[in-house]
Design brief:
By secondary structure, the protein is an all-alpha fold. 82% of the residues lie in helices and 0% in strands. It has helices at 7-31, 33-41, 47-72, 76-99, 105-131, 138-173. Helix 4 (76-99) packs antiparallel against helix 5. The protein is globular. The termini are far apart.
């Protein structure tokens, strides 16, 4: 609530460490993609899916922070349109990839990833053109981590609990049981 902090400084101070964290987590998924595929799908054949998914981690973080900017500015319609556009853009990319190019699962995921990158890049360009680019302030980063770390733990726990059934089925019955 400090009046001396610009929106751009606050935005960059939240965006930068979140993006770096996403890159670190994505790197771990990238490095262990074969093992993750083997553990959760009972086969290493889907390593490439996890490799592509590793690139989506920081991209999704950038997208969510961009959408959160619009929500914080009380522009919920814009935030909803962005989320809807990303969702239907992914569905359209998957449909085109499947029906026009007759791609396999990796091709479909690459098409969805391209749409995610384009929409997220455009979103970040628009937000940064509004707020400007300024150096992050480390005291803001510290406050953001202090506030956000408990939320991160809760979010990770929630994601695991909502996906646990698929992880267990994939581990015991293979990729066909989870629709891959």
């Amino acid at each position: 609530q400090d009046e001396n902090i610009s929106i751009g400084t606050l935005y960059i101070s939240i965006l930068l460490p979140s993006f770096i964290s996403g890159i670190l987590v994505g790197s771990v998924v990238f490095i262990f993609a074969r093992n993750i595929s083997k553990i959760f799908l009972n086969t290493p054949n889907f390593k490439m899916v996890f490799v592509i998914g590793a690139f989506l981690i920081p991209i999704r973080i950038l997208f969510k922070i961009g959408v959160s900017y619009y929500r914080a500015r009380m522009r919920t319609k814009t935030a909803s349109l962005l989320s809807t556009g990303r969702f239907y853009g992914g569905i359209g990319a998957a449909a085109i990839s499947l029906h026009v190019f007759q791609s396999n699962i990796v091709g479909i995921i690459i098409a969805i990833t391209i749409v995610e990158i384009l929409i997220t890049g455009l979103l970040q360009f628009i937000v940064l053109s509004h707020v400007g680019i300024s150096p992050p302030r480390f005291e803001l980063i510290k406050r953001a981590f202090h506030y956000g770390l408990p939320w991160a733990g809760a979010n990770i726990s929630s994601n695991i609990s909502t996906r646990a059934d698929r992880l267990i089925l994939g581990s015991f019955l293979g990729p066909g049981a989870v629709g891959v």
